[in-house]
Amino acid sequence: MSTGTITRITTRTLETQTGPKVGWRGWAALAVLMLPALLVSVDNTVLAFALPQIAQSLQPTSVQQLWIVDAYPLVLAGLLVTMGTLGDRFGRRRMLLIGASGFAAVSVLAAFAPTAGLLIAARAAMGVFGAMLMPSTLSLLRTIFLNRDQRRLAVAVWAAAFSAGAALGPIVGGLLLEHFAWGAVFLLSAPVLVPLLVLAPILLPETRDPKPGRVDVVSMLLSLATMAPVVYAIKELAVHGPTATVAALVVVGVASGILFVRRQLLLDVPLLDMRLFRRGTFGGALLVNLLSVVALVGFLYFVAQQLQLVVGLSPLQAGLVLVPGLATMIVAGLVVVPISRRVPPHVLVPAALVFSVGGYLAIAFSAGSVSVVLAAFVSLGVGIGMAETVSNELILTSAPPAKAGAASAVSETAYELGAVLGTTILGGLLTAVYRANLVVPAGIDADAATAAQETLAGAAQAAEAAGGSLGAALAEAAATAFGSGVLVTSLIGAGLVVVAAVVAATTLRSGPDRRR
């Protein structure tokens, strides 16, 4: 089958267990599909490194600072299932092109946002168009690579694009932040998306579900009403603790989720086929995927601040410290491909995640020097790189081919939800411990003390304004409080990785035949 043929791919062909191998056009198509993955990961790491400058320029509150990071993945996570299903119905390549055009346009608005509120709004709009991008890439990959050995390698290369983007983000972002204002980091989408818009119509086939059913608006609204309140409740709980608002949000989210599941079970052609979750491999791989991303994003969230605001590195220098770990993640994701043919996933994934646990423990029980951060992130990258490649391939293989878009959307929902929870749970916990342990020296005025209590960036700015021994005392107090937060957050992160390893060991035993 020629992957360059612009045609609908039939379910019968897709269900072939040992499909035909693709030629050069298939691998060229993979290169095009890597561009959105590259863009999303660059955006995530660039923003983490730009956050100190954004905090000093726009002066957001601690809640707004979390929302600047989380508005994009929150909206994206809420819409991924809907957009993935719409791609199955109306065409996955079409959704990819619409998403790319909109994402580029909104990124320009984010670059010139004058206030924290408008930046959050722009990030949310980026989430709408980003939700069109990501399910399309994985589902098109599933339909292009019919041979499982080639598909396993293609998934590894696609996953490596995330790591490559994360590696390029700190370098390119650091260079931009050295010479331009923080808004420049959002303009990176143009050079990535222009080639996509040109090459996608030439190299990518238009694929869709041959029996998509009707568009179910009620299910779409219920899916959004499930995701958004629950994630927002987690954010509020992390920052403010248990409140009536948190309880109300949880009730709304859980109730919507129950209604969503019941509706899907009653529909002949559901928005999301709940039978996918009866497959132990599918559900287990999703949970491993989610927890791995939580660990990765949470690590980057506090390490980026520690390197810049505590150690005193520039954005470029901080990015260079993380490059070896990000490169290791890429290599690990590729190296695991031949290993996965011989070692079952319930053994391979837990063994790989041992390295990630070690990385978190190294940060927890050290002073957080540059060399320790570098070594810890290398160790973390080994486990995350391998686990992500294996879990993504299992998710794609476990789902029926005709539902590739919906399954890919669920996988991407897990990824983006993990990104939200990484900054929300680990970032919110870090903020709470920082606030509880920060002792503002006497002599700091009330406004500066309030800013210092909000964020580490606020403390750094207040210390610089105070100057002298008083400023140095505030900086030292903030660094000590932040270190206390890093200790607790690192131990929680290590615990989450252990949970991921246990889930893999107990649920991935029923994985598809690796010889296929």
Question: What would you say this structure looks like, in words?
Answer:
Helix 10 (280-310) runs antiparallel to helix 13 (370-398) and helix 14 packs antiparallel against helix 17. The protein is globular, with a radius of gyration of 22 Å. It has helices at residues 11-14, 24-58, 62-90, 92-111, 116-144, 148-179, 189-203, 217-240, 244-266, 280-310, 315-340, 345-364, 370-398, 404-437, 446-454, 456-466, 468-507. 80% of the residues lie in helices and 0% in strands. The model is unreliable at 1-17 and 511-516 (pLDDT under 50). It is mainly alpha-helical and 516 residues long. It contains 17 helices and no strands.
